[in-house]
Amino acid sequence: MREGERIVVECNQLGQPIKKAACLLTSFLGTVARRPQLCPLGYAKWNDILPTYKVELLRVIETYSAIGRAARAAQSVPHTSESKSYARLRQEFVDEHGRESGKVKFYRMTYTHQDGTFVRDESRDLYVRYY
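The structure corresponding to this sequence follows.
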């Protein structure tokens, strides 16, 4: 992003960020909210940040990556929405179809591969039970 450039973040009726800018905003805010001491806002450039901050930041990133890998491995029914929030996925559906998706339709959207097959038998069974 160029210096001085601004990103407009649209929100749905619940105030949840949607569309592509939502991912940028939520990632940034989440990091700052959890650990603002890792990368103080007083620095204008990455090169100006003290090496001790950089070492600690990299350590935390590695720890969070390991936690994320373990959480994904523990999921019994993983979703296929990647890093998109459910609010963003719902808005994309509204933009494309001009209406809200139902709960069952939304479940199918987030638990199937692009070819329409379910990620696991358990996800298919849950869908069949409520469809």
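The mean pLDDT is 81.
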